[in-house]
Each structure stands twice: as structure tokens, then as C-alpha cells.
């Protein structure tokens, strides 16, 4: 059996993988919320590449919130929570807020305490 490192290296060097990766990166960086966040921070290309997964997570979960129909149908990782990008030193995190946001139709917010 081939080591996983060889398989990953082979996949990453495929032309179609690189094209899809670059297209995904462009889409993420075009997101208005991501652009606003990045304008407020000094971010290098290396930092972007290292944290692209977190930016992708943020964009996907933000889209879920924009299309929310009800709290019960929330597809986010933490049901009812909205994502927020936070720089902690040189690390980017995609945290969920401490405010439980119910369905937009209900237009209510309930504060939830973290332990």
C-alpha cells in the first residue's frame, strides 16, 4: 500500500486539482465579508494559503445564515450560531458567536452562556 503522503502529493499535482483550488480561493476572496475582514488586517499570501480552510468554513456557514428558513433547519456546524473570523496572533479562527440567532423570520436573539 502507498503511503498517504504519496497519494496526497499525487492529487495536489493534478492539473484539475490546482484549477479547482484556485477557483475556490478566488470565490472565497471575492466574498464581501471576507474582503471587509481582510482589509482590517495585514495578511500575507502565505497566511491566506495557510488559513484558506477557515475562510472557506466562514463563507459556507455565512451563506447558510443568509438563506436560513428556520432554526430547526439550520445546517451550520453549531445549529443557530453565526460564524465570526478572529485573528489570534498569527492564527485565524472561525468562531461561532455567543449569541444564539434564531430564524430570520422570527427576528429574535437569545443570549447563550458559554461554560
How is this structure best described in words?
This protein has 5 helices and 4 strands. By secondary structure, the protein is α+β, with helices and mostly antiparallel strands. The strands form 2 sheets. A two-stranded antiparallel sheet has the order 1-2. The protein has a two-stranded antiparallel sheet with strand order 3-4. A hairpin with a 2-residue loop joins β1 and β2. The radius of gyration is 17 Å and the shape is globular. The relative contact order is 0.10. Residues 98-103, 105-109 and 111-115 have low confidence and may be disordered.
Low-confidence stretches are: 98-103, 105-109, 111-115
Structural class of the secondary structure composition? alpha+beta
Strand order of the largest sheet: 1-2
Q: Report the mean per-residue pLDDT as an integer.
A: 76
User: What does the main sheet amount to?
Assistant: 2 strands, antiparallel
State the share of residues found in helices, binned by percent: 40-55%
Task: Say what oligomer this is.
Answer: single chain
What's the total count of β strands? 4
Shape: globular
Order of helical and strand elements: HHHHHEEEE
Write the layout of secondary structure elements.
Blueprint: H1 4-12, H2 15-30, H3 32-39, H4 45-50, H5 52-66, E1 83-88, E2 91-96, E3 99-101, E4 109-111
Antiparallel strand pairs: 1-2, 3-4
Pick out its properties.
115 residues, two-stranded antiparallel ribbon, alpha+beta, 5 helices, 4 strands, globular
Compact summary:
With 115 residues, the chain is α+β, with helices and mostly antiparallel strands.
Amino acid at each position: 500500500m502507498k503511503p498517504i503522503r504519496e497519494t496526497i502529493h499525487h492529487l495536489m499535482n493534478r492539473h484539475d486539482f490546482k484549477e479547482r483550488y484556485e477557483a475556490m480561493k478566488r470565490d472565497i476572496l471575492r466574498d464581501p465579508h471576507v474582503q471587509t475582514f481582510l482589509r482590517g488586517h495585514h495578511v500575507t499570501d502565505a497566511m491566506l494559503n495557510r488559513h484558506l480552510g477557515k475562510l472557506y468554513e466562514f463563507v459556507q456557514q455565512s451563506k447558510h445564515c443568509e438563506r436560513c428558513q428556520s432554526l430547526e433547519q439550520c445546517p451550520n456546524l453549531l445549529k443557530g450560531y453565526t460564524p465570526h473570523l478572529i485573528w489570534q496572533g498569527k492564527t485565524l479562527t472561525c468562531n461561532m458567536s455567543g449569541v444564539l440567532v434564531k430564524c430570520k423570520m422570527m427576528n429574535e436573539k437569545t443570549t447563550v452562556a458559554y461554560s
